[in-house]
Amino acid sequence: xxxxxxxxxxxxxxxxxxxxxxxxxxxxxxxxxxxxxxxxxxxxxxxxxxxxxxxxxxxxxxxxxxxxxxxxxxxxxxxxxxxxxxxxxxxxxxxxxxxxxxxxxxxxxxxxxxxxxxxxxxxxxxxxxxxxxxxxxxxxxxxxxxxxxxxxxxxxxxxxxxxxxxxxxxxxxxxxxxxxxxxxxxxxxxxxxxxxxxxxxxxxxxxxxxxxxxxxxxxxxxxxxxxxxxxxxxxxxxxxxxxxxxxxxxxxxxxxxxxxxxxxxxxxxxxxxxxxxxxxxxxxxxxxxxxxxxxxxxxxxxxxxxxxxxxxxxxxxxxxxxxxxxxxxxxxxxxxxxxxxx
Length: 342
Hints:
alpha+beta; six-stranded mixed sheet
């Protein structure tokens, strides 16, 4: 049985695992390693330590389905809608630009529930706090080292973390990447952002007429969402949650500052936009160094095969585009590349 390691428990990695489980002709042993403490990647959903039913999406806020992908990826949307993981976004989002035929969806349990669904479907062995540091070639297998614990060997490795983290890996992989491949990887560019989640006591009222709002006149703040209202799950027993996403220039300016200082700056700007906002009971500040892909490699076709025997492939939105359909496209391309190997 081929041992397959997928590095990264975001949308592309989890869907790769689910597709490999479903589509490969013979059984495989699937392992997923994630450096964070939970799955989701940039579809992260944070829970209030005071009440786990109170959640906030710190990454992606909703999913936009275009007419093109409504046809191309229909089975993926149908499955998530049938399971109740996605539902149409019906709450008012001020400043949202809608194109003809587009449809927006939210995840009632937070967008990380999509990733968790695919991981469950995959039956993969998932390990958190596993940060990969080295990849070496040993007797036609990949020996993969992490920050703590012993190295492990795999027949196939799929890398779905942000591209700059792939370029930081040590070991034989650094010498096995061709100059052309390195140039392709180095051409990937990301924007950066901060997100601040705020959790409130049950019964707290946030008196605004919208569920989300795009801000164009503030140097710090780009988007605000009353998250439970966005998902249509307001409850008298669960306090509201709010998330603020910063502008890219603000994040670039403060990228290397302490999270505490940045959180204070974001909160000051939020209070100027929403005066009289109640005091939160808990806050969670998230730095997205690699937020959205600005440029992907030309002609990468959703994946980049770095080595064929044994097989080592990169996937993720760095090779397509930073949205749900970009990640689905990449996962399908990785599956196509792997089919002949398993």
